[in-house]
Design a protein that fits this description.
Chain A: One of its GO terms (molecular function) is oxidoreductase activity. The complex is a heterotrimer of chains A (539), B (518) and C (410). By secondary structure, chain A is of the alpha/beta class. Chain A is 35% helix and 18% strand. Chain A has 17 helices and 20 strands. In chain B, a hairpin with a 2-residue loop joins strand 8 and strand 9. Classes of the chains: A alpha/beta (539), B alpha/beta (518), C alpha+beta (410). Chains in contact: A-B, A-C, B-C. The interface between A and B is large, with 37 and 41 residues.
């Protein structure tokens, strides 16, 4: 029987990141993946001939540059291209564009309000200030307030020192910021609906909260902390689709001798005497390993793969109550020509960025009310991108791949499972919204893939289709993620670790959970990683 | 003319508590009240011939024992804790007896055990928070020894209970009440009650993150040493204001009613007194504003005397009321279906489920009222027969959600909302409609006008995480002191917040006195 | 349909095409374009502005020897008017606006509640109830929020108003020959309106060069004819158009500071330690503790009383002739004391001068034994040198002709 030093359950981006670091530290590592390909929610798949789909995650910004560098991802093919702009289309036939050029951006806002145009400066500064505080936390293990170990204490001291660099006024502002809704926060700066709607979208993407829910200002930060080559808050496309990220990771892993086994679904994580010994695959094969690291979400890992008897009761209780309700869906579309948006000037850079149709916070919040009632939003919020406007590798010239991220979309429809008819009706809602702003849109569609939380769970394995492997609310952040007392990537079972987005600092194609998990594992093994960069300096 | 050491603006219970404490500290204190009688939101009024309402509040559930003892408040009746009955329209009531359900009637033993466990946990956690209520919020950059000892005591309190309780505290602190209830309870009515209690008077739904804070806040209150208890003083709620007045007067405070303040005198960062609306100047080195912080800084202090940033932050205080107050004059005592007769003098909450509360909240976000509102009801004339003519009865209801900024305007909204409320009451107490002699619905707009409360918000500002402690009402004025030397805040808009606790006023006065000793 | 009857939404839609020209052209652009020999443009707050037009060094001599025209249209301009305008500005800014007469200008600055400088600028009193505030950064939300409780109207008019600085020893002669009668009566910081093409041009005796000079403001539509009028009259007086490079040299000689170059504005700073109080950037003289309350008053006076001011801005004279821009300042060659924010070799003073921000007590208590470490790039190699620096008063160049009234012709 094969035996490895470490086995990674699931070949998502975090699992691969952990695998790379461990293999590079001299361990013999195997990644087992249930699908016929690795990538988890960061994949590029040719679902119809001639079109490559980023069918789950679709944009890249959060992925930590430290990891790209440590794991030599550029050498293995990763290239990220920054967005050029973005737009929210308004119901009156106009739009609000976002431009990279500072003064154009201001003049665009000034079309709606001179005050808002000038207020944006202070807003951007205040958000960046908060980012500066939070960013260093991403690449560190969250200290345990009740750990009482020297390491936890020194980590708290470090955080206190960071916080101490703020003025008293800023500290008070930070406490406010963390607990505010993005809607209330924006009300303090802006007066124009569409401007607020545009800025609020980062506060809700991927979350089961509406823009009026407290805590969404923090979620905004979560999306704002990314960067494209030092340009903070910027977003980009991975050339070749999001699969390019995980393909580069896989190549990097294999280049240092790692083993990947696809079509190998883990059905059980084996434990004996409070210690893991390996896994059993769905086909009955057993793979032995001293360490098992689960890239699967915390529910799947501990409620499906591990025997409940092997776990403390209160831990299981907490995992059961870990919130990871899916809130989004995805409609991926192959187009035989570039859609037209008559509102935009010809050749507008907005097409080469993110586009939206929700022009007020109220519409966003009402979309959330539908979700609370167990329905997909009748007037959903869309984050729509056409990566092929910048990436020639995903479709042949003139053809386009369009990704529509849709919010809100519940894990169950009014308490029952999704049906195919539901899925089609959901897709029609989305296509209808786009077609309202883009005449002839339907005729351009060559192929379409519709993914509700059901499809996302079935293919990617994300419980309830939650893209962050767990909601980003206070009770599930930092030392509470995923379970208080088990927020440092270790589990109650010796040798079994977590490295997915269910752990700190959470979801998005960031890689930080995987990297931090590797750091903790290597610490337990008393090994020093060959190359693990410290967090880059904060801007 | 007599000169005063301190002028207190507003003779609400917080103003009177502050005045009494200052007077007991040897200061000569003048209280100026705009209305013709003291009491603020506890001030009663006749709303129909022969029928009186005792004011906004219809129960006492957080009167601070230290405050009461210290200022010599003589308010009796604390011995009788009132029950809370939840009616969902099915006729099957559940009644919480003792202090917030020490025992419960109407639910399964299993559910009662679950509630006991949750109650115990919440009371423990609220107890940690309570330590911070009786003192000014810690000032960042100038943490005092007292602050440190409060933190240390809170930390020790957590550690003593063991790691898992400590961890649970940090996990739950900013959660929503819905997820917590769902984890522990299964009875919809009980969950509905917790949802209602956590959000009453707050612009949050039970599923909004941080909504558990509202419940914690309730459980930081106590009556006769019992956390979560509620009572109506003997003589009814109408006896609350006079008790505060007596305490203040006994301490030597001068109270002048019918004397609205027009302006707070300030020059280059220092106050020197006030000018009443009739033009009389009254000087004093200390001015304590026990009225809404926004009235204080946006109307009474010349904005030129405050900084732009400060004015901006005061304007940003979210203070739009969500609750309507209904007073009904009835020609007989109503019969609520399923309400045990021995519980009818208590609090009656009309709620079916948490979802109902959440759905009632939805329209409030968009400036609409709920067509299926949730409410708590009391029958005040049972405790104070003088409120109604013989044989008659008064009913007081706090109805949620009724947004201050109603899109359609309250002029047309009010009759429509009243109709909905009366229909709701009719469903629970068939026949009540025919017994209505008069109805007086106060929307937040009416509450604003009647009690000079901007936004009609009884907490003088949303009681939400971002407007608490060092950010209440705003960071530059969070420790009762303000950017204007000599001017202090002492209303519910200051730490710790609203409800008849007397704490904001009392804390403010103690802070003023201790600062003077330094 | 004319503009007056267009709805706000239509006007908004009509403005969409701004993106086709991301760099705005100033009202004088046609003339600048025609004169630009070197096509050396830079981005000034979204406007295409000349860094130089023919030769930066020679442009400098136009300012100091003849007359120089510099386009200041991109300066941010706010019109503040109304019965409370004076009281409003008195609360907003540091100096006493009650002492600013009609048709007078003063240099001032404004702070947030914490006494940190938001910006500096010039305040023009155009009437009893009418002012213009000119500055580098944008402040509309701050100005509007400050208006709570005041009857005052605030309008951003940057694009509508064209501005020109006419600076140099022959600048008066140019104006006189251009037909601006009685312009010689203007004392420094005086303003007067003069007819131009059926409209008015506002001329103030102000400038950013420390030389004799004027600033002219006119409606956008009259900009080019004003330029032509000055240009024609200026020919005998050797008038030249200049870019920012030359102007910057003269402003350093005059000891003036520039927001976000010599200090970071309170709204622009990401780091708590970067903000500055007036006393920390040499603007203590603007603070008037005796006038009615103003933004930042308490914080500034507290900092003075408690001696918690952290920085100080000084003028330095540095040995040698290598400009020390962005050099680190040391005390006794080893303790880091601060940073040079602007530096040039002054052609007029023949001194190597600099403006530096030092961390107290350097510059306040320890004023001797200061050094700057200059890295001079010389043919792809840094030449590192430690030069002695001496704190000297600003301005570094003081010219009698700047203030002489009536002004001289040469």
């Amino acid at each position: 029987m094969q035996k490895y030093d470490a086995l990674i359950v699931g070949g998502g981006h975090n699992g691969l990141v952990t695998a790379c670091y461990l293999q590079r530290a001299g361990l013999n590592v195997v990644v087992v993946e249930k699908n016929g390909w690795v990538g988890g929610a960061a994949t590029s798949r040719e679902l119809t001939p001639g079109f490559l789909y980023s069918n789950c995650s679709y944009v890249c910004s959060l992925f930590r540059p430290e990891i790209m560098r440590d794991l030599e991802l550029p050498k293995h093919g990763l290239q990220v291209i920054a967005y050029e702009g973005g737009a929210v289309f308004t119901r009156d036939g106009d739009y609000l564009a976002s431009y990279r050029d500072h003064d154009s951006h201001r003049r665009e806002f000034a079309r709606y309000s001179k005050r808002d145009a000038e207020a944006y400066e202070r807003y951007a500064r205040d958000v960046t200030r908060q980012c500066r505080f939070i960013q260093p936390l991403l690449m560190r293990t969250a200290p345990d307030p009740f750990g009482f170990r020297p390491r936890d204490l020194s980590e708290f001291l470090y955080l206190a020192k960071k916080f101490g660099e703020f003025s008293p006024h800023e500290m008070a502002e930070t406490l406010r910021f963390w607990t505010m809704s993005i809607s209330d926060f924006l009300d303090e700066y802006f007066e124009t609906d569409v401007i607020k709607a545009y800025l609020a979208l980062s506060g809700i993407i991927g979350t089961a909260l509406g823009p009026m829910s407290p805590g969404t200002a923090y979620v905004l930060l979560h999306h704002y902390m990314g960067e494209v080559d030092g340009s903070v808050g910027a977003w980009g496309y991975a050339r070749g689709g999001m699969g390019a990220v995980t393909q580069a990771l896989a190549r990097s892993f294999e280049a240092v001798g790692g083993t990947i086994r696809t079509d190998a679904e883990v059905s059980k994580i084996l434990t004996r005497g409070g210690r893991t010994t390996g896994v059993v695959l769905a086909n009955g094969d057993e793979i032995r390993a001293d360490l098992v690291v689960s890239n699967a979400d915390v529910k799947r890992t501990f409620l499906k793969l591990v025997d409940e008897d092997a776990l403390p009761g209160d831990f299981v209780h907490r995992v059961k109550h870990f919130k990871m309700r899916g809130s989004s869906g995805k409609v991926n579309i192959a187009l035989d020509s570039l859609p037209e948006f008559p509102a935009l000037p010809e050749g507008s850079s907005c097409l080469r960025g993110d586009m939206h149709f929700t022009d007020s916070i109220e519409r966003m919040e009402r979309a959330y009310d539908d979700w609370k009632d167990g329905r997909w939003s009748a007037d959903p919020f869309l984050d729509m991108v056409i990566p092929t406007t910048l990436d020639p590798t995903m479709a042949s010239p003139g053809k386009h791949f369009m990704s529509c991220f849709v919010q809100y979309c519940p894990p169950k429809v009014e308490g029952r499972d999704w049906t195919d008819a539901d899925r089609d009706a959901f897709a029609e809602t989305v296509i209808g919204q786009i077609a309202d702003y883009s005449p002839g849109f339907r005729d351009r569609i060559v192929h379409m893939e519709v993914r509700t939380p059901r499809e996302i769970e079935n293919e990617v394995g994300l419980t309830e289709g939650n893209i962050f492997q767990g909601e980003l609310t206070f009770d599930q952040l930092l030392f509470n993620r995923p379970v208080p007392g088990y927020a440092q990537y270790r589990s109650p079972i010796h040798g079994l670790y977590m490295c997915g987005s269910s752990t700190h600092p959470g979801g998005g194609v960031m890689g930080a959970p995987g990297r931090n998990a590797a750091a903790e594992i290597l610490r337990d093994l008393k090994r020093t990683p060959e190359q693990m960069s410290k967090a880059h300096d904060v801007i | 003319m007599t000169s005063f050491d301190a002028i207190v603006i507003g003779a609400g219970h917080n103003g009177l508590a502050a005045a009494a404490r200052l007077a007991k500290g040897g200061r000569k204190v003048l209280v100026l009240e705009a209305a013709h009688a003291p009491g603020g939101a506890t001030r009663g009024h006749e709303f129909a011939p022969g029928f009186r309402s005792a004011g906004l509040a219809h129960l006492v559930n957080r009167l601070d024992a230290d405050v009461a003892r210290d200022i010599g408040l003589d308010l009796s009746g604390e011995g009788t804790l009132l029950p809370t009955t939840v009616l969902d329209g099915s006729g099957k009531a559940i009644t919480l007896h003792g202090a917030y359900g020490e025992s419960i009637a109407g639910i399964s033993a299993e559910e009662e055990a679950a509630f006991v466990a949750l109650r115990k946990k919440l009371i423990f956690q609220a107890g940690i928070l309570k330590r911070f209520l009786r003192r000014p919020p810690p000032q960042i950059g100038a943490i005092s020894l007292g602050d440190l000892s409060t933190f240390a005591a809170a930390g020790f309190g957590l550690i003593r209970k063991g790691r898992s309780e400590g961890r649970d505290f940090l996990r739950m602190l900013l959660m929503n009440v819905a997820d917590v209830s769902d984890e522990y309870l299964s009875d919809d009515r009980l969950k509905g009650l917790l949802a209602f209690d956590a959000t009453l008077g707050i612009h949050l739904g039970p599923r909004s993150p941080t909504s558990l804070l509202g419940l914690y806040y309730r459980l930081t209150g106590e009556v006769a040493g019992k956390t979560g208890g509620q009572f109506v003083p003997s003589g009814g709620m109408a006896s609350v204001a006079p008790a505060f007045v007596r305490a203040a007067e006994k301490a030597g405070v001068t109270i002048r009613c019918g004397t609205p303040v027009g302006r707070i005198l300030a020059d280059r960062g220092r106050t020197s007194g006030v000018v009443t609306r009739d033009g009389t100047e009254i000087t004093a080195p200390i001015v304590v504003s026990a009225i809404h912080p926004q009235t204080t800084f946006l109307s009474l202090v010349d904005p030129a005397e405050s900084g732009t940033g400060f004015v901006r932050s005061v304007k940003n205080v979210r203070s739009y009321g969500n609750v309507a107050k209904l007073d009904l004059a009835l020609d007989r005592i109503p019969t609520f279906e399923g309400l045990p007769i021995e519980s009818r003098h208590g609090r009656i909450v009309l709620v079916r489920s948490m979802e109902q509360v959440e759905r009632a909240f939805n329209p409030a976000k968009y400036g609409e009222f709920s067509s299926d509102p949730v409410m708590e009801v009391t029958l005040p004339s049972l405790a104070d027969p003088s409120l109604a003519p013989a044989g008659g009865c008064t009913l007081s209801a706090l109805v949620q959600y009724a947004p201050y900024r109603l899109k359609a305007g309250w002029e047309t909204g009010k009759p429509a909302f009243l109709k909905i409320i009366l229909e709701t009451l009719e469903r629970h107490a068939p026949g009540i409609g025919t017994s209505v002699v008069a109805a007086n619905l106060m929307t937040p707009v009416d509450i604003e006008a009647e009690y000079n409360l901007p936004g009609g918000h009884w907490h003088h500002g949303e009681l939400q995480a971002d407007q608490l402690l060092i950010n209440r009402p705003t960071s530059a004025a969070s420790g009762y002191t303000t950017p204007i030397e000599g001017l202090y805040l002492a209303s519910a808009g200051a730490h710790p917040g609203g409800g008849i606790s007397g704490l904001p006023g009392w804390n403010a006065a103690r802070h003023i006195l201790s600062a003077a000793r330094l | 349909m004319n503009a007056m009857t267009k709805s706000a939404a239509e006007l908004r839609r009509a403005a969409r095409d701004h993106i086709l020209a991301p760099r705005l052209e100033t009202p004088f652009h046609d003339r600048l374009m025609a004169l630009s020999e070197v096509n050396d443009w830079y981005n000034w707050a979204g406007y295409k502005a000349p860094h130089s037009l023919f030769d930066s060094e020679l442009e400098y001599f136009a300012i100091r020897s003849t007359a120089a025209l510099f386009d200041i249209s991109p300066m941010v301009k706010y019109r503040i008017a109304g019965p409370d305008a004076e009281r409003y500005l008195n609360r907003l800014t540091l100096r006493d606006v009650m002492k600013l007469g009609v048709n007078r200008v003063h240099y001032t600055a404004w702070c947030d509640d914490h006494g940190h400088v938001l910006d500096d600028g010039t305040l023009f009193r155009l009437g009893a109830q009418e002012f213009r505030l000119c500055c580098q950064e944008r402040h509309l939300p701050w100005l509007l929020d400050s208006a709570f409780g005041f009857t005052v109207d605030i309008r951003e008019e940057t694009e509508e108003i064209a501005g020109l600085a006419l600076q140099g020893p022959t600048s008066y002669a140019v104006l006189r020959d251009a037909g601006f009668a009685d312009v010689e009566k203007l004392k420094p910081f005086d303003i007067a309106a003069f007819p131009h093409e059926g409209s008015d041009v506002t001329i103030s005796r102000t400038g950013f060069t420390g030389d004799l000079g004027y600033e002219l403001f006119v409606q956008r539509a009259k900009a080019l004819s004003l330029w032509d009028r000055l240009w024609a009259a200026g020919q005998p007086h050797a008038i030249r158009a200049i870019g920012y490079g030359a102007l910057n040299q003269t402003r350093i000689e005059a000891g003036f500071i520039v927001a976000n170059a010599d200090f970071v504005t309170a709204e622009g700073s990401l780091r708590a330690l970067r903000v500055r109080m007036p006393d920390e950037i040499g603007l203590d003289w603007l603070v008037d503790p005796d006038k009615p309350n103003f933004n930042g008053r308490r914080a500034i006076l507290d900092a003075r009383r408690n001696q918690t001011l952290k920085h100080i801005l000084v003028g330095l004279e540095i040995e040698g002739n290598i400009p020390a821009e962005h050099a680190i300042v040391y005390h006794r060659k080893k303790h880091e004391a601060g940073l040079v924010t602007a530096a040039i070799w002054s052609p007029t003073a023949k001194r190597n001068i600099a403006i530096a921000s030092l961390e107290r007590p350097y510059g306040s208590k320890f004023t001797d034994d200061l050094w700057v470490e200059i890295y001079a790039m010389r043919e792809l190699k840094y030449q590192k040198m430690m030069k002695r620096a001496k704190i000297v008063p600003r301005p570094f160049v003081k010219l009698a002709r700047r203030t002489a009234t009536p002004p001289g012709l040469t």
